[in-house]
Specification:
Layout (H helix, E strand, L loop, with lengths): L1 E5 L7 H4 L2 H8 L4 E5 L13 E2 L9 E2 L1 H14 L7 E6 L8 H7 L4 E5 L5 E2 L9 E3 L10 H12 L32 E2 L2 E2 L9 H19 L1 H4 L6 H12 L6
Length: 250
C-alpha cells in the first residue's frame, strides 16, 4: 500500500513511523510512505500557505491554491493507483474513525492524507477529498497526529504486517466487541490466578470463553457498541444471563 501525506510538517512523522510495526511494514515493502510539503507549491514570494479569513476572526486559514497544486501533483504522479485510491482529509467535523473503517481502508492500494494546520481549511479545499475523517470529538493543532493514528490502525490490517497472523482478529473492536482478557506467566501472581480454562488445552472451550468474556466486557464498559451489532440468539441469551449475575469477568 502507498501512503501519501500532504503536510507542512513531514518531520513530525519520523518518530512514529521510524519504529515498531510501521517501520517493519516499510522495511518489508508492505507500506510505501511518501511526504509532500504543500508549502513547496506556494508560488508567492514568501511561500505563504495561509491568510486571514474573509469576514474577520481569529487565526489563519489555509489557502486553496498550494493545496490543490500539491494534491494534484501527487495524484498525477501516482495515476497507476487511481482505480484503488482514497483521498482523506483530517477534519474534526468528519465521522469518527472506527475499526470497521480501518478494515475498509486497508482494501485500497493508496491512501492520500490531507493534513491541515492553523485555524483550518478554506472551504474550497474539501472537494479535493473523497471523505473527511475525525479521530474524536476534540480539536488538535493539526491533522498529522490523526493521520498517524489512522495509518497505524490500517497497517495492522495488511497481510504480513503483524508477526502473528491471528493478532489483528483478536484486537478490540475487530468484530465490534472489546477484546477478551489476556494472561501470561506466572500462573499465580499475588493470589491472582489465570483462569483454568486457558490452561486446559481445549481450544474450543478457550474460544468460547474468550467470546463470552468479550461480550461481558463490552456489556459492562461499552454497551453502546452492542446496539450496533447483529447478535445471535445465543449471544443475546448470554447477555441476559450476565444481566442477572453480579459476577465480574474472570
Amino acid at each position: 500500500m502507498r501512503i501519501d501525506m500532504i503536510t507542512l510538517f513531514p518531520e513530525m512523522f519520523a518518530g512514529p513511523f521510524g519504529a515498531s510495526i510501521t517501520k517493519r511494514a516499510v522495511d518489508k515493502g508492505i507500506l510505501d510512505i511518501h511526504f509532500t510539503n504543500f508549502r513547496d507549491y506556494s508560488h508567492d514570494k514568501h511561500r505563504h500557505v495561509d491568510d486571514s479569513p474573509f469576514g474577520g476572526g481569529a487565526g489563519m486559514v489555509l489557502k486553496p491554491e498550494p493545496m490543490y497544486r500539491a494534491v494534484r501533483a501527487v495524484l498525477e504522479e501516482t495515476a497507476a493507483h487511481a482505480a484503488s485510491r482514497r483521498v482523506l482529509i483530517m477534519d474534526p467535523a468528519g465521522p469518527v474513525f472506527t475499526q470497521a473503517k480501518a478494515k475498509e481502508l486497508a482494501g485500497y492500494e493508496q491512501l492520500v492524507f490531507i493534513c491541515g494546520h492553523y485555524e483550518g481549511f478554506d472551504a474550497r479545499i474539501y472537494p479535493l477529498a473523497d471523505e473527511a475523517i475525525s479521530i474524536g470529538d476534540f480539536v488538535l493543532t493539526g491533522g498529522e497526529l490523526p493521520a498517524m493514528v489512522i495509518t497505524d490502525a490500517v497497517s495492522r490490517m495488511l497481510p504480513g504486517v503483524l508477526g502473528d497472523a491471528e493478532s489483528a482478529p483478536t484486537d478490540s473492536f475487530y468484530d465490534g466487541l472489546l477484546g477478551f482478557p489476556q494472561y501470561t506467566r506466572p500462573r499465580d501472581f499475588e493470589g491472582m490466578e489465570v483462569p483454568e480454562v486457558l490452561l486446559s488445552g481445549d481450544h474450543a472451550k478457550i474460544r468460547q470463553w474468550r467470546h463470552e468474556q468479550s461480550l461481558r466486557l463490552t456489556q459492562a464498559k461499552r454497551p453502546d457498541l452492542l446496539a450496533k451489532l447483529e447478535l445471535s440468539d445465543k449471544d443475546r441469551e448470554l447477555l441476559q444471563r450476565f444481566d442477572q449475575s453480579e459476577e465480574q469477568p474472570e
